[in-house]
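Run: sequence + D-xylitol-5-phosphate -> complex structure.
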Amino acid sequence: MKYDIRSIAYDKVTVAPSILAADFGTLDADVAKVTAAGADLLHLDVMDGHFVPNLTMGPPLLSSLRKACTLCFDTHLMVSHPLFYTPVFAKSGADHITFHVESDDDPAEVIAAIKAANCTVGMSIKPKTPASALLPYLKDLDLILVMSVEPGFGGQSFMADQMPKVAEIRQMIRESGRQIHLEIDGGIDRKTVYEAVRAGANMMVAGTSVFRAADGMAAAIDGLHAATAELAI
Ligand code: DX5
Ligand code: ZN
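>> structure
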């Protein structure tokens, strides 16, 4: 059974904890904890050591987590060949697949492959990629992911200079008349969330600030949800 990202609210701030910041030695327990703490979906960062200079998780990890986790698997493919990996990750439990427009494959072909795999479609752009790169594909997207760090590692500082691009994309979404989640990824915490939300993001990826919160995951997630008051959709 697939969990549909389109059934997740568009009119409140939602939180996708990135398990990259969890303890892989106790991953099952960490995922159970973050679910109980109020996560809206689970963000899975897949890196191939080629598109980005880091290696993270593969299909067997998703399959293992899928057995116990009931959250929507928000799979972020930071790989050079999303066309090859889409069916593999869909089979392993991905519900939603986001790929990078900067990857080596033809974006239209990747979109078709994600749909054929019965997943919802996300497209991500790196900090130096303009919003206009998304335009030809807008009609097929369920989610747009703006990177607020250079992809590759957790724990980096939030790039506030990406906020005008977030605002520009929010305007593109309004003009499209479609429901598209606008997700932001990198350096999101209880402070930076307000900049992201005021610019027009509605879905927050957060690794370090959730899994390593000094006052616990529930307080961290509550702190992100609180930004709903300033949502600019
Ligand atoms: C970076 C990843 C992020 C990262 C976020 O390439 O896509 O999802 O794990 O981590 P924090 O929240 O620690 O910046
Ligand atoms: Zn990510």
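>> summary
The two ends are 30 Å apart (CA to CA). Helices lie at 27-36, 59-66, 82-91, 107-116, 163-176, 192-199, 208-211, 217-225.
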